Amino acid sequence: MTQAPVARRLHPTLTRRGDRYGLLLLLLVFSYVISAFAATKYAGLIQTPLFVVALLLALRTSRVKKRTARIIVTGMLIGTFSAVAFALGHATDIGLGIANVWTGLVLFTTVVVIIRRILSRPVVSLPSIFGAVSAYMIIGLMFASFYAAIERLGSAPFFAHGAPGDTRTFQYFSFTTLTTLGYGDFTAATNGGRAVAVMEALSGQVFLATLVARLVASYRTPPRNGSTASANTGPADTAPADTAPADTGPADTGPADTGPSIGGREPAAGPAQAQHRAGNPRRGPVTRPAAGRRAPVKWRNAHRREP
């Protein structure tokens, strides 16, 4: 009954629903696999609706105001529909280049929303790690879209030595640049392409060295139901009780009534004896020792008169 409030206090993110960064990561991997095996120049247009869905999932987990989220979603849907329709209606490199630019902007917005949500979380949990990995993967896809736009909107080929440029090649080059792997089989030919590649390499290193490393170092597993109770209920207070000796001063004892009993009953107690049984009002009630323990010598001799 008390485990749920305890879990909320120890791990506040357990009570917040809506974090779908694991699903977002699966969606991004699925979109990358589609582009890797799609032998068509329209593979980027196939990915664009999936990236819009990724943005919707990111907005769902963020704390953006409803009005702002509605404006973003409406603008993204209208822009995506217009870009895809323009690319399909004008089957040229210019139409595809404009669609690639729009795809890159959608992915950039998704990265901003995810990072903003991760930094606002009070506790680092597993969804935070999934969100950081998703943002890292989106950065690679975003730069791949910009590379494709440079290829199709520019007059010169993007890659040197006449290497073909399509969606698969751009994403391959983007992720090898982001991770600073650099096989060397594809290199940028133009100065603009090289500048963008350098920016991607720096972004990847800064992202891994700052955000991801910080999240992994601060990660804490959520408490289990069995361990939450034990985490809150610490060891019992084993401090010794206040066993100060009672007031053992000589009691005010008058002459005790030692007459014979009448009818098997003890005679009525005298005023001094009654006062001793009730306790001295100035000193409080007389505290007798617990059973099984030997009474102090002073208490046992309290009823004896001085010679």
Uncertain segments are 1-17, 227-241, 253-264
Give the name of the CATH architecture of the domain at 17-222.
Orthogonal Bundle
Helix count from the secondary structure assignment:
11
Secondary-structure element order, N to C: HHHHHHHHHHH
Largest sheet: none
- How many distinct beta strands? 0
Short description:
The chain is mostly helical and 307 residues long.
List the helices and strands and how they pair.
Elements: H1 3-10, H2 21-37, H3 43-61, H4 66-89, H5 93-120, H6 126-153, H7 167-178, H8 191-217, H9 225-232, H10 271-278, H11 297-300
Helix pairs in contact: 1-9, 2-3, 2-6, 3-4, 3-5, 4-5, 5-6, 6-7, 6-8
Q: Please, could you describe this protein's structure?
A:
This protein is an all-alpha fold and 307 residues long. It is 60% helix and 0% strand. The chain is built from 11 helices and no strands. The protein has helices at 3-10, 21-37, 43-61, 66-89, 93-120, 126-153, 167-178, 191-217, 225-232, 271-278, 297-300. Helix 1 packs across helix 9 (225-232) and helix 6 runs antiparallel to helix 8 (191-217). The two termini are 67 Å apart. 26% of the residues are buried. Mean pLDDT is 74; it is low at 1-17, 227-241 and 253-264.
